[in-house]
Every structure is written in structure tokens, then in C-alpha cells.
Specification:
heterodimer; A: alpha+beta; BirA Bifunctional Protein, domain 2; 9 helices; about 35% helix; B: mainly beta; 6-stranded antiparallel sheet; 16 strands; about 0% helix; protein biosynthesis (chain B); Transl_elong_P/YeiP_cen (chain B); cytoplasm (chain B)
């Protein structure tokens, strides 16, 4: 059991967390975004090869609210955001909790470059609000939010740090390993860095880039080597999206993993969505960086394995 | 073979059998890039040789738990390079090489109770109590007038182990030692008393 002293000692982190949550809401509401709430339980979560949903009475706890939020986008809600709990089975480490707080925001009629602008404005706004402008210290590194941010493609970063081009060579196992061990540790010093244009097979729900069909319009935001957000220009072609879902479910079945049903209403709604972009940001990780906390357990009142 | 484990069982302190030898996970980190697969990054230490290496595992990997057992033993005597122990409940005697005893030899005195670790039925090492008491067999008198606090001098203990002790320690004194750090804690008995 966690002693009362230990819980009381978290106060500085929890106070900063509260200020960050307020800051995030203020940023989006003051820019005309509508805060929405969508169900935590769902019969059909987005099929993902490497993200496992937790079961709940025959349904699932959401691993992300993205399908519900894109339903809203397709219905004409142009700028929306949501902040709430999501669940991912088996993810537990210093940077992973099986239950964590995710912030997602979406823009109709935009692509991933608009999301990158949002990220720049959002982190600058937050750092000013929290007194961390223009720089602060995280694990002995001086981080800063002002000045130009780097934007490197996956191809550039892998060629530089891992010595191979994952867009040309199709090796997903090596991709994941080298990303974690060779590439990520270099990204986001001292300003945040975008890692952009993922190989096609890493596209998830992202649109293929028109000017270079070997990559998808997807990026991850890194700061101090830590992945903070994943954004993309949304794939709005119903048939291509269905094909990708079916492929993913097929692979999951082969690997002996749970295969939830296809999200059919979501797929139908894509017919009403022309162009859109959306992003998911890990709030606990952002709090960890902005408070110079050693791990995620420090920035939540109760870590996942603590009983009430 | 020990119980079969999966990658989600991996954590710091877990003991695995790899290529027929017992390993303990001394450092562990769960990683998962973006939409990629889970990676379980481990630093493993061979429980017999002490050699360490890093290895990253994936979700589908399977493992065998190391088949380890602990028994309470009493240290009897040393014969050449072999250390002899006796199981305190079965009275069965077990030998352990000097290499397997390792630094623990500095603290072993007759009748000391230790925990012996067995891998697949063979003894591979011992763990000592955190504190032991040992007699000083040789130490030159402290220099008169040198009363600066923290000043120390060398002393040899009954096991042949040499440590630094405060100047007031004399031959024949019994000292309490911390076996985890190998250092002096306090004097428990003065010579002649």
C-alpha cells in the first residue's frame, strides 16, 4: 500500500498537472475547438496490430476515442478536442501505463501540417502559462520551446542514426527495434522535433502522401527523446480504410490475438468526410517532461497497480 | 525446466534459464514505439559467472523460469579450495568451490548460517546474513595523539580479510561488519572482556 506520506509528497506534481490540464483546455476552447466526450466502452475499437484493447462485458475499453471523434467530424463538427482515459492491455513501464490520459484534437479541411502548427502554438502557450518559457531543465538537459523546431523524415532520421532506409527496406521488426534504440534517443533536443512521413506499412489510419506514395502523412512529436504525440492526415477513403482494417484483423488472427468486429458505422461515415487531420497526445508524458518527473508514476495520483 | 513464461511476465528480479544457465534480470524497461510492437529490454546477469549482457525481447517470445531453490546451510570448514557446508535440517553435506563462494569467503566462520542457492539441484552460490561478527587477529596500535575523527588504520580479521577500522580497535576485539558493503559497523566486544 502507498503510505499517506508518499501520496502527500506528490503534491507539487499534481498541482502542475492540474495547471497543465487547465492550460490545455484553455488553449483549445479559446481557439474555437469544441470539447466533446465520447463513450469509454465500445463494441468495435479501431483494429490495431500492436495495440490490445481490454475487454469489458463483451465490449472493449477504448484504446483511443478516434473513431467516435471522426464520426463527429463527418457530421460537420469542424474543430473538436477531447481529454480522457484510454486503456491498453499489458502496457506497463516508466513511460507506459495501461490506463492513461489522452488528448486528441481534430480539424476538418486540414492536413498534418496544420497539426504541427497547433503543436508549436500549444507547447509555447503552455510553457508561458507555467513559467517554463523560454527554457527549463529536464533530466539535466536544458529544453526550450522557442526557436525553430526540427522536422526530420523517418527516412532521414534512420539513415543518420541507424544506417538504413526503412522506406526502401521492408523490415518492421528491425524498424521498431532501431526506432527505440537508435533513433528516438536523439530526437527533441533542445526543442521538440517532428519525425515525419512514415513508411506505408506504418501508416495506421493515415493518408498516403500524394507527392511520395512510398510514405504516409503521419508524424510523431518527440521531446527529450520521449514520444509525446502521434498525428496524421486522416485516411478518408472508405474502401482503403476497410482494406487496411481487414488486413490488420487477418494478421491479428494469425498471431492468435483478439479480433474485435469491424467498426462499420465509422467506415460508412467516411463517405461524408472529405479532408481532415487528427492527433493524439499523451498527457501524462507531457506532464512528466514539464515537471521533470523521473517516470509516469510520479505524475498520476495513483499508478495503475495501486488499490484505492 | 522451470515454468514457461511469456514476455509480459518479464520484470526486474525475475530469474530465467537461458542456454542451460540461470540468469537474473537486473534492469528492465518496457518500450513501445508509436504504433509499433512492444519491446522488453532486459539487462541479464549470469547467476554463476556474473557476466552481464543486454537483450531485447518481443511479445511472442517464450521463456523458462530458472529452476532455483534455496536451502539453509551451516558453514563447516575449508579443505584446500573447497568450502564445506551442512544442511541444517537434513545434515547432508555440500561442497562449494572457492570461485562459487566468491567474496563471501571473507565473512565465513565456522557454524555461520547462510542461504545456499541451487540451480537444477546443484549448488551455485551462497548469500550471507547482512551482518556478521568477526574477531581482529592483527592490527597495529593507533598512533598516539592522532584523535582526528574519521581517522582509520588497517586490521586483519580471523578470516584473513583486511578492512579499515577506527584507531581505538585492538587485536582480539570482535567487530560487527556489513556483508553487503564489506565495511566495519561497530565494536561488539573488546579484547580480553
Amino acid at each position: 500500500m502507498m503510505a499517506p506520506m508518499e501520496l502527500a509528497a506528490k503534491r507539487p506534481y499534481l498541482e502542475m498537472r492540474s495547471r497543465i490540464l487547465h492550460g490545455l483546455r484553455l488553449f483549445f476552447t479559446s481557439r474555437g475547438f469544441l470539447e466533446v466526450q465520447t463513450p469509454v466502452r465500445t463494441p468495435a475499437p479501431a483494429p490495431e496490430l500492436h495495440i490490445d484493447p481490454l475487454e469489458s462485458e463483451g465490449w472493449y475499453l477504448n484504446t483511443s476515442p478516434e473513431l467516435y471523434m471522426k464520426r463527429l467530424l463527418a457530421a460537420g463538427y469542424e474543430k473538436i478536442f477531447q481529454m480522457g482515459p484510454v486503456f491498453r492491455k499489458g502496457e506497463r513501464g516508466s513511460r507506459h501505463h495501461p490506463e492513461f490520459t489522452l488528448l486528441e484534437w481534430y480539424r476538418a479541411g486540414a492536413d498534418y501540417t496544420a497539426l504541427k502548427d497547433d503543436c508549436r502554438h500549444l507547447l509555447r502557450f503552455l510553457c508561458r502559462e507555467l513559467g517554463l518559457f523560454p527554457h527549463f531543465t529536464f533530466r539535466g538537459n536544458r529544453l526550450r520551446v522557442d526557436g525553430p523546431w526540427q522536422d526530420v523524415t523517418v527516412r532521414q532520421a534512420f539513415t543518420r542514426y541507424a544506417g538504413w532506409d526503412p522506406v526502401e527496406a521492408d523490415d518492421p521488426d528491425r524498424f521498431d527495434l532501431d526506432l527505440v534504440e537508435q533513433v528516438e534517443p536523439h530526437l527533441g533536443f533542445p526543442t521538440p522535433t517532428f519525425l515525419s512521413d512514415y513508411p506505408r506499412r506504418e501508416a495506421a489510419l493515415a493518408r498516403i502522401k500524394a507527392s511520395d506514395p512510398s510514405v504516409a502523412e503521419r508524424f510523431e512529436l518527440y521531446w527529450a527523446g520521449i514520444e509525446l504525440a502521434n498525428g496524421f492526415s486522416e485516411l478518408t477513403d472508405r474502401h482503403e480504410q476497410k482494406d487496411r482494417f481487414l488486413q490488420t484483423l487477418h494478421q491479428r488472427r494469425k498471431m492468435g490475438l483478439a479480433t474485435p468486429p469491424l467498426p462499420r458505422r465509422f467506415l460508412e461515415s467516411l463517405d461524408h468526410l472529405d479532408q481532415a487531420a487528427g492527433i493524439a497526445l499523451g498527457v501524462d508524458r507531457l506532464v512528466m517532461v514539464l515537471t521533470d518527473a523521473p517516470d509516469l508514476d510520479h505524475v498520476v495520483a495513483f499508478a495503475p497497480d495501486h488499490e484505492p | 525446466m522451470g515454468a514457461t513464461l511469456t514476455a509480459s511476465d518479464l520484470r526486474k528480479g525475475l530469474k530465467l534459464e537461458i542456454d542451460g544457465e540461470p540468469y537474473i534480470i537486473v534492469d528492465f524497461e518496457f518500450s513501445k514505439p508509436g504504433k509499433g510492437q512492444a519491446l522488453y529490454r532486459c539487462r541479464l546477469k549470469n547467476m554463476i559467472t556474473g557476466v552481464q549482457f543486454d537483450r531485447t525481447y518481443r511479445s511472442g517470445d517464450k521463456f523458462s523460469a530458472a529452476d532455483l531453490e534455496e536451502q539453509e546451510m551451516e558453514y563447516l570448514y575449508k579443505d584446500g579450495t573447497q568450502y564445506h557446508f551442512m544442511n541444517t535440517s537434513t545434515y547432508e553435506q555440500v561442497e562449494l568451490s572457492e570461485e562459487a563462494v566468491g567474496d563471501a569467503k571473507n565473512f565465513l566462520t565456522e557454524n555461520l548460517t547462510v542461504d545456499m542457492l541451487f540451480f537444477k539441484g546443484s549448488p551455485i552460490g551462497i548469500s550471507l546474513p547482512n551482518f556478521v561478527e568477526l574477531k581482529v587477529t592483527r592490527s597495529d596500535p593507533g598512533v598516539k595523539g592522532d584523535t582526528a575523527s574519521g581517522a582509520t588504520k588497517p586490521a586483519v580479521l580471523e578470516t584473513g580479510y583486511q578492512i579499515q577500522v577506527p584507531l581505538f580497535i585492538e587485536e582480539g576485539d570482535v567487530l560487527k561488519l556489513d556483508t553487503r558493503t564489506g565495511t566495519y559497523v561497530e565494536r561488539v566486544k573488546t579484547a580480553g572482556s
